[in-house]
């Protein structure tokens, strides 16, 4: 299940990256009449297109950092579980975890 979701997520990320300008890029007629281009909102909408690279990559860095923390905590949890399971003094834990 996880590998299928990983393949689908990578496909959606790369499809969105390569075809973003086709749907919401500057000068495309795809969304004409759907998105309001009033003078109050045109400036901030265009400003988002030309952000510095470090600001555009901040969500990616945050996601990678979170995934790293998740893997480290999962590794620590696995090590702690194996230590508890192999200890001879914790019979209650062994009994409850192998029901």
| Shape by Cα distribution | elongated
Q: Structural class given helices, strands, pairing?
A: mainly alpha
* Low-pLDDT stretches: none
| Average pLDDT number | 75
Question: Helix and strand string, N-terminal first?
Answer: HHHHH
The overall number of domains is 1
**How large is the radius of gyration?**
24 Å
Topology, number of strands: 0
Question: How is this structure best described in words?
Answer:
- With 99 residues, the chain is an all-alpha fold.
- 75% of the residues lie in helices and 0% in strands.
- The longest helix has 29 residues, at 58-86.
- The chain is elongated and about 70 Å long.
- The model has no long low-confidence stretch (mean pLDDT 75).
List the helices and strands and how they pair.
Elements: H1 2-24, H2 39-49, H3 53-56, H4 58-86, H5 91-97
In summary, what is this structure?
The chain is mainly α.
Features:
75% helix, mainly alpha, 99 residues, 5 helices
């Amino acid at each position: 299940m996880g590998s299928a979701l990983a393949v689908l997520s990578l496909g959606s990320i790369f499809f969105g990256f390569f075809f973003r300008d086709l749907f919401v890029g500057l000068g495309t007629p795809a969304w004409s009449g759907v998105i309001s281009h009033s003078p109050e909102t045109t400036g901030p909408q265009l400003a988002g297109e030309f952000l510095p690279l470090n600001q555009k990559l901040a969500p990616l860095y945050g996601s990678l950092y979170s995934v790293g923390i998740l893997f480290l905590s999962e590794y620590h949890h696995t090590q702690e579980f194996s230590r508890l399971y192999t200890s001879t003094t914790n019979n209650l834990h062994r009994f409850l975890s192998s029901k």
